[in-house]
Amino acid sequence: MITGLLVVNAGSSSLKLRVLDSADDTVASTELERWQGEADLDALAGFLRSAGAVDAVGHRIVHGGRAFGGAVRLDDPVIAELEALTDLAPLHQPRSLAGVRAVRRVLPNVPAVGCFDTAFHATLPEPAAIYPLPAEWRERWGLRRYGFHGLSHAYAARRAAELVDRPIKQLRVVSCHLGAGASACAVANGRSVDTTMGFTPLEGLVMATRSGSVDPGLLIWLQQRGGLGVAELADGLEHHSGLAGLAGGDEAGSSGDMRDVHAARQAGDADAALAFQVYIHRLRAGIASMAAAMDGLDVLVFTGGVGEHHPAVRSAAAVGLDFLGIQLDEPANAAASGDTDIGDRAATTRTVVVAAREDLEIARQVRALLNPATTGVRSAQDPE
User: Residue 141 and residue 130: Cα distance in Å, rounded?
Assistant: First the structure.
């Protein structure tokens, strides 16, 4: 039985460490914001000493490719395979693997498990997963839509079902994970059936520094007519686009952090205001497209740093989606804290806020892999 489980959640901009006991209660936690992939081993060791014994480690890994459709023990060959996927998630994969290496140095004899953001989307039906590209390309390079934020979407959908007191197998849920990265997911009967991210975490919604979806012809034009090289394009799309690219260059809001954008917008900055409007336009479209993939919607979920803490984003996103039965209780939305219902009582679609707890989904998968006979936990693809 696992009594102390360390969850390592390395995102594109933060590193979260949390130790859970056998009941999934938090024993200790710490977070490094604006993390760039360099871990202080002395600080890590000190944190773990104060947290008590650790029997297993669960790591959030963004990209599992086609090889990893579920949680797996992390050893040298597996880590090497994951390194080979770095070009598919250049912001995330190196930081995830840096976290793996750091913890291995401090806890060399403790079993470590990788849990993948792509695994939840292994259930995507072919019409949602396949790109309309030449068959030779698709077969040669394994081109398909993988989807991301699966750990967050899986937990958020399951928690939303609890909040509305209905079985998840009877619900059509759109989960919006909004943070530095952002994606929406259609969860029908507990399974991912569509999502806004694709082959890489660049596709889909507007994000902090990532563009989201743009016309591929525009990128070809920039190469042929604008003279931009591949490296320059990649850097621009990953690090200087999204809210950062829209909100005034080196002026206010250029970090891409929604807190900065909102503050600049409130102060009357026109670029920040436009950035917010573009963000909301794409978010509304994403929510509607996910609902269309399920022929309707029962529950809308907001999660992630932006989704949880920015009522203005939730309110603006809901405007114009009343045709989906979405209507907010604005006082409840403004006061929302933790897991809560923010929908108007007369609305036919429930709207909830769920605190992101990828750590609980990771813990669930680690226990299922290491103690399958005692946990009774299903795989990442199977809803409860």
Answer: 13
Give the active site residue among 117, 260, 271, 344. Answer: 117
H-helix or E-strand spanning residue 176: strand 172-178
Q: Say how far residue 104 (Cα) sits from the centre of its chain.
A: 24
The answer, yes or no, to whether residue 276 has pLDDT greater than 80, is yes
CB of 2 closer than 8 Å to CB of 53: no
- Which of 26, 30, 61 shows the shortest CA–CA distance to 149? 61
Neighbouring CB atoms inside 10 A of 371's CB total 14
Which residue's entry shows tokens 């992390």?
Answer: 74
With helix as H, strand as E and coil as C, how does 196-212 read?
Answer: CCCCCCCCCCCCCCCCC
Q: Which pLDDT value is given to residue 237?
A: 95
Q: What percent of the chain has pLDDT over 70?
A: 92
State the pLDDT at residue 230.
96
117 catalytic? Reply is yes
Residue tagged 């102060």 (tokens): 267
R_g over Cα of the chain: 20
C-alpha–C-alpha distance, residues 164 and 342, integer Å: 11
How wide is the angle at C-alpha 97 spanned by C-alphas 95 and 103, nearest 5°?
105
Q: Which residue has the higher pLDDT, 320 or 128?
A: 128
Which of 127, 137, 147, 154 shows the shortest CA–CA distance to 64? 147
Distance of CA 238 to the CA centre of its chain: 16
How far, in Å, CA of 11 to CA of 180, rounded?
9
Predicted model pTM: 0.90
- Residue pair 267/283 in contact by the 8 Å Cβ criterion: no
Looking at residue 323, the DSSP 8-state letter turns out to be G
The whole-angstrom separation of Cα 205 and Cα 364 is 28
* Amino acid (1-letter code) at residue 32: L
Count of beta carbons in the 10 Å neighbourhood of residue 334 = 13
Q: Which residue is associated with the tokens 């299922």?
A: 368
As a dihedral over the C-alpha atoms of residue 257, residue 259, residue 264, residue 266, rounded to 10 degrees, the angle is 150
- End-to-end CA distance of the chain, in Å? 21
How high is the mean pLDDT of the chain?
Answer: 91
- The alpha carbon of residue 383 and the mean position of all alpha carbons in its chain are separated, in whole angstroms, by 18
Residue where the block lists tokens 């990532």: 210
Residues contacting residue 346 through CB under 8 Å, at least 6 positions apart: 327
